[in-house]
Amino acid sequence: MSFNLRIAACAAALFLAGAQGAFAHGFEVGDIEIAHPWSRATPEGARVAAGYMVLKNNGSEADRLVSITSEISGRAEIHEMSVNAEGVMTMRPLTEGVEVPAGGEVALEPGGYHIMFLDLEKGPVEGEKFSGTLTFEKAGEVEVEYAVEAMGGNDGHSGHGN
User: Fold this and answer.
1) Considering 17, 33, 108, 110, which has the largest number of Cβ atoms within 10 A of its Cβ?
2) Contact 117/157 with Cβ under 8 angstroms?
3) What is the pTM of this model?
4) Whole domain around residue 111: which residue ranges?
5) Predicted local confidence at residue 61, as pLDDT
6) Is residue 64 situated within a structural domain?
7) What ranges make up the beta strands (E) of 58-88?
8) Does residue 11 belong to any structural domain of this protein?
9) What is the pLDDT of residue 82?
10) Domain presence at residue 5
11) Please, which pLDDT band fits residue 6 given cuts at 50, 70 and 90?
12) 3-class secondary structure for the chain?
């Protein structure tokens, strides 16, 4: 490999390593770590959007995400998506929230647990961020920023405008 090609390869590797850090972001409250809250851009006129993140509990007691608010929606709910034995996908709100086990983590991701932002006042726009507040039963409240990624993907929300 020529000297110039090695320099270019090293520069590209450093750029990609730095870019990965620029896209990842996290927040903490009490024993809870919140990794990379994100959403997808929505088409104009959409009334709902979804939010995702990973919740990690570093404590010795379970905690529970019990509510969410956001600056882009009239309300937000924690939902669970599942597929039954007949292959039918269902989505339901978790009125009691979602437990984050002691020493464990819960992924809020497409096709599973997630946040539904309902009655959108402003749709998420790719490349922008929006704020929201997560409330945990024990750890309390924390403000987070959701990074908005490109529209697309199959997360089961196509019938919901996302």
Assistant:
1) 108
2) no
3) 0.78
4) 24-160
5) 97
6) yes
7) 63-70, 73-83
8) no
9) 86
10) no
11) very low
12) CCHHHHHHHHHHHHHHHHHHHHHCCEEEECCEEEEEEEEECCCCCCCEEEEEEEEEECCCCCEEEEEEEECCEEEEEEEEEEECCCCCEEEEECCCCEEECCCCEEEECCCCEEEEEEEECCCCCCCCEEEEEEEECCCEEEEEEEEEECCCCCCCCHHHCC
What pLDDT is stored for residue 156 in this prediction? Answer: 40
CATH number reported for the structural domain that contains residue 47 in this entry: 2.60.40.1890
* CA gap 162, 153 in Å, rounded: 9
**How many domains does the chain contain in total?**
1
Contacts of 113 (CB under 8 A, 6+ apart): 78, 79, 80, 81, 94, 98, 106, 107
Q: Give the per-residue pLDDT at 106.
A: 97
Q: Does residue 7 carry a pLDDT above 50?
A: no
Name the DSSP letter for residue 152.
-
The first and second tokens of residue 23, run together, are 């896209």
Tens digits of residue pLDDT in 59-93: 999 999 999 999 999 999 999 998 888 888 889 99
